[in-house]
Amino acid sequence: MNANDPDSPDLYSIADLAREFGISTRAIRFYESKGLIAPERLGATRVFRRRDRARLILILRGKRLGFSLREISDYLGLYDADRNQQVTMLAEKVDERLNLLEQQLADLQTTIAELKEIRKLATQRVAS
Amino acid sequence: MNANDPDSPDLYSIADLAREFGISTRAIRFYESKGLIAPERLGATRVFRRRDRARLILILRGKRLGFSLREISDYLGLYDADRNQQVTMLAEKVDERLNLLEQQLADLQTTIAELKEIRKLATQRVAS
DNA sequence: CGTTTAGTTGACGTTTACGTAAAGTACGCT
DNA sequence: AGCGTACTTTACGTAAACGTCAACTAAACG
Questions:
Q1: What is the pLDDT along chain B (128 residues), one digit of tens a residue?
Q2: Which residue range forms the structural domain that includes residue B31?
Q3: B114 within a domain of the structure (yes/no)
Q4: Closest to A28 measured CA to CA, from A56, A3, A57, A7
Q5: Which of A23, B11, B20, B125 has its CA 20 to 30 A from that of A58?
Q6: Which residues of A touch B106 (CB under 8 A)?
């Protein structure tokens, strides 16, 4: 795990993370303004720790999956087990989200299969 | 297959399709304005056939997968094999899209696995 | 000590994907 | 003929997710 890697630093500037993940600093500030991350401050300057970095990874994965920042925000809440008092409600929300994702998984598999079929037909026509 | 079902009608109004797929007529007109569908006209009134309906299904699936209408438009082009002269280029585009989707598939599987882990931990705490 | 360099907070601009009237046309009924 | 209902286009409004200045501050460097 990356978090256990002794070589991985514990402190990051906003530019560090922007560079690492190929996003703009503006985007990162925007995520903070929406409450998705909450870096510490040294005076006015944002200081990011591994926890913030980990959340950024989850945010970007959520985006690749097509979720809105609002949805990603809800999703991130699921990871804060300690801050989650209603464990039963947590399980329900996780199940909800799982259903969504599994519908999406089915969509994906259908689409991939169709595209492979199209490619097969195309390469057949090339071979003939 | 639905297209072979003799009971499925061949003509649909814009309201028919909106009702069937739970979207607004405005959305359908918008998709047309973006060139994603091209229904025939009876005077000014749009008349949809099975082909348009099939494209709508693809559009909505694309949306569930988080793609933009622009991306979905490109994607729909892949289905028009007849209109596609450069078969080699088609195969390349299909492969590109497949790579994207398989990255997305990996993201999804990771996310689903993590959520199941979270749920396991949550239900354990309930059981204890 | 002056000036790059990296950071900050506004504030306005932009694109996407529609929602929401507004105003008009066309058909089917009574 | 009048009415409701379904359809049309045109056009302005909106939420999300940033991009893009502008104006300012603070640390670092020769």
A1: 555 566 677 999 999 999 999 999 999 999 999 999 999 999 999 999 999 999 999 999 999 988 999 999 988 988 876 666 666 666 777 788 888 888 888 888 998 888 888 888 777 656 65
A2: 1-65
A3: no
A4: A56
A5: B125
A6: none
